[in-house]
Write a structure and sequence with these properties.
five-stranded mixed beta sheet, 14 helices, globular, Nucleotidyltransferase, domain 5
């Protein structure tokens, strides 16, 4: 009996290897699958035949542009299923559907009313999940699982928020609320970790095994990939970049420390500080006294990109502090790449060159190439896309056949 169970687990693992290879390369022959996965050809053929019968995989037309004898190519069936990504953030909810080939087929975003209790936010998130499921059903693509990500310290085993300073949450069991509503595999993860996964599988860090990702926003998050795997730390709280102290005499942070990075360049802080600067500013400005009170982060970005002097200085401040942190992370981890995300593409286009200048100035002057600093491929959507991508990893574990077959 044990031998049978072990064989079944090995076959699950090998099936997952084949599916992952096809997600990465889109189309492969049986021989190419064997070479890519390291499995022998008979094992590949047996598993492929099973997956074709399950409609998980399809054979396509003969290859015509490849070296060697022509043969049928294999590809995943995008309509076999999809995963749902849900991002719960401080002031918005986001949702996405990722089909079986990792293609985004639907996305939505909705603002959150300030001051909602954790229970109310969760109920809004569940309603948004139901909307995503309805969208999947409309497209006749069955949902396979749900990934929920939040800007918080996450106990992934319990699916609970241990501490979310910007959310104002502590010891909230998120998983149980979703499990009570949906009969699907569900996971709960930190948003920046999810963003790193999105970049690794689908974005600018494809085929990059060692990189660091920093996400901006109300809070500042981080995700670290080491040898292609998330570095979680002892309790799962690694890469909390936003809580690196950059000003020991600075503001009190919601985490309990003082002078954390996000108390200096978090979106909320930048908005409050910019309003104060504009009120005392003597230079010409597009903002009236009345409009200053309703100023938001997007307004500051647009004004800064349009060369408003106060707002542009604020954007440069963000770039400066990110550049300092990037130089420190480069010295600590020696990564192949550092990715900056969480901001809009237009802001990233401004920030990245500024960050590179600061990081280079404050990095060790060795013969090595300068740090490879890149913008996130997905911008503000990296976390929610990563939430959906992580579900496929979850389904590839020993429970693979229970939810995929």
């Amino acid at each position: 009996m044990q031998a049978t169970a072990d064989q079944f687990t090995v076959r699950q693992h090998n099936s997952a290897l084949i599916v992952r290879a096809l997600r990465q390369h889109q189309t492969l022959s049986r021989a190419e699958l064997a070479a890519e996965t390291g499995l022998n050809r008979s094992t590949v053929s047996s598993i492929v035949n099973d997956l074709i019968q399950q409609h998980m995989m399809e054979e396509t037309t003969y290859q015509s542009d490849r070296i060697g004898r022509p043969g049928l190519l294999l590809t995943l069936n995008p309509s076999y299923g999809c995963t749902i990504g849900i991002e719960v953030n401080v002031d918005y909810l986001a949702a996405t559907l990722l089909d079986f080939t990792y293609r985004v087929i639907w996305q939505a975003r909705t603002p959150l009313t300030p001051g909602l209790s954790p229970a109310d936010v969760i109920m809004n998130g569940i309603a948004f999940t139901q909307e995503a499921i309805q969208e999947a059903q409309y497209r006749r693509i069955p949902p396979l699982g749900i990934g929920v990500v939040l800007p918080a310290l996450i106990d992934t085993h319990r699916g609970a928020v241990t501490l979310g300073p910007n959310l104002g949450w502590q010891n909230i069991s998120v998983l149980k609320y979703w499990q009570a509503q949906f009969d699907l595999p569900i996971l709960v993860e930190n948003d920046a970790n999810a963003a790193a996964v999105a970049e690794h599988y689908l974005g600018n860090a494809r085929n990059v095994e060692n990189f660091v990702l920093i996400t901006g926003g109300v809070g500042i998050g981080g995700g670290i990939m080491v040898d292609g795997k998330l570095m979680r730390g002892q309790n799962g709280y690694a890469a909390e970049v936003g809580h690196m102290v950059v000003d020991p005499e600075g503001q009190q942070c919601g985490c309990g420390s003082q002078g954390c990075l996000e108390t200096v360049i978090g979106n909320t802080i930048i908005v409050e500080e910019t309003r104060q600067l504009l009120r005392t500013n003597k230079q010409p400005s597009r903002f009236t006294a009345e409009s200053i009170d309703t100023l938001n982060f997007d307004d500051i970005v647009q004004a800064g990109l349009d060369n408003d002097p106060v707002c542009r200085l604020q954007l440069q401040k963000i770039a400066y502090h990110l550049g300092l942190v990037v130089s420190q992370l480069g010295s600590l981890f020696n990564p192949e790449m550092i990715i900056i995300g969480g901001y809009s593409h237009c802001l990233l286009k401004f920030l990245i060159p500024e960050i590179k200048i600061v990081a280079q100035k404050h990095s060790m002057q060795t013969n090595s190439p300068p740090l490879n600093i890149q913008p996130s491929h997905f911008g503000v959507n990296s976390s929610v896309i990563g939430a959906a991508a992580l579900v496929y990893d979850h389904l590839s574990q020993p429970v693979f056949s229970n939810h995929i077959n």
